Amino acid sequence: MNDRLVRACRREPVDRPPLWIMRQAGRYLPEYRALRERADFLAVCRTPELAVEASLQPVRRFALDAAIVFSDILLPLGALGFELGFDPGPRIANPVRTRAEIDARRARPVTEAIPFVGEAITLLGRRLEGELPVIGFCGAPFTLAAYAVEGGSGNGFGEVKALRYRDPAALHALLEKLTGLAVDTLLMQIRAGAHVVQIFDSWAGILGPEDYRTFALPPVRRMVERVRPAGVPVIYFAPAASHLVEDAAKSGADVLGVCWRTPLGEARRRTGGLLALQGNLDPHTLLGPPERVRERARAVLDAAGDSPGHIMNLGHGILPETPIASVEALVETVAERESKPV
Ligand code: CP3
Questions:
Q1: Which of 14, 47, 275, 340 fits a 20 to 30 Å CA distance from 95?
Q2: Confidence band (pLDDT; 50, 70, 90) for 154?
């Protein structure tokens, strides 16, 4: 098994930093677009055979160091009765805005509501024949709450912030339910064979430090505590959160994923070198010529420094309009480091 990712998560020495790409399975790949002509997004997620095909597409083409299960952070919301659609952004037909609406939601077991996520991971592991690690994932409670209250991607997630001021106890109650759901989702994925899990806190950055410490960080800490005994490394990704780096480093996760707004050298200093870092090439870099991709990727690798504990990645998901040649240039640039002992 290629163990670069797991070793880097644990800050053990590796021959070069591992590379995977957030949203590596997706629309920038012509073979993914072809798959989507045959089936809509939710059908791909719900059919393990198709989900595994989407996960394998990028690792067949590029020398990446992990495969990620094809799914979405919002699918587990189905277990709490949220009716979810994508066109292509997410739409929730029945968001919750009041304490009564929140209290009325009862979670069904994830093994009943989204069994296909675990099945896809097991099948993916079998198809990879143990060659690459499989990444499982879920949304962080605050980020899931942002969608559950807003009902979609909307206008900067004003609804969840309004609820925070109108009825903070209701927001806490919702976060509690989402924490249980997210933990169950990750444990199901780990039981199914995930080697590493990532918690996406895509919208934590809309909070100021005090609200982050009150509403977003504690549920993530509880999640990590409950998932840790399962024994796989945990990555916590919080983009657009430069103002929260010191706090986010206290999630208990093994790795903090940062976006391009926080230089990696600065992130290392501000986290005291206490956890590994993931990132953080700006996805827009890949819209430039391959030479520019190489130059910027080298700068990220240099900023990460020589001490163990860096996972090369973008600072956020790869853009659908990204040329294949850019991804090849990124992969080659990371491979250059192989000769250098780290
Ligand atoms: O390779 C992978 O990473 C694939 C698995 C994956 C998807 N979504 C597939 C997907 C993962 C890890 C996600 C995470 C996700 N989903 C996040 C966290 C990451 C981030 O971007 O901050 C969030 C916030 C979502 C919610 C979501 N799902 C949105 C906002 C959208 C629309 C985005 C867009 O770019 O249009 C989706 C849809 C979605 N999820 C697609 C894919 C491949 C596009 C669907 C399609 O094929 O039409």
A1: 47
A2: confident
Q: How many CA atoms lie within 13 A of 93 on its CB side?
A: 6
| Side-chain-side CA neighbours of residue 112 (13 Å) | 6
Cα 96 to Cα 103: distance, rounded to the nearest angstrom: 10
- Chain-wide mean pLDDT for the chain? 97
Rounded to an integer, what distance in angstroms lies between the CA atom of residue 257 and that of residue 262?
10
pLDDT, greater one: 155 or 248:
248
| Annotated catalytic residue 147 | yes
Q: What is the DSSP secondary-structure string of 101-123?
A: HHHT--PPPHHHHSHHHHHHHHH
Token pair, residue 55, equals: 């996960």
* pLDDT beyond 70 at 340: no
Q: What are phi and psi of 107, to 5 degrees?
A: -80, 135
Residue nearest ligand 1's atom 30 by CA: 89
Helix axes 158-166, 141-150, angle to 10 degrees: 100
pLDDT band for position 181 (50/70/90)? very high
pLDDT for residue 82: 98
Quick check: pTM over 0.90?
A: yes
- Residue whose CA is at the smallest distance from ligand 1 atom 48: 88
Q: Which of 162, 183, 182 is nearest to 96 (CA)?
A: 162
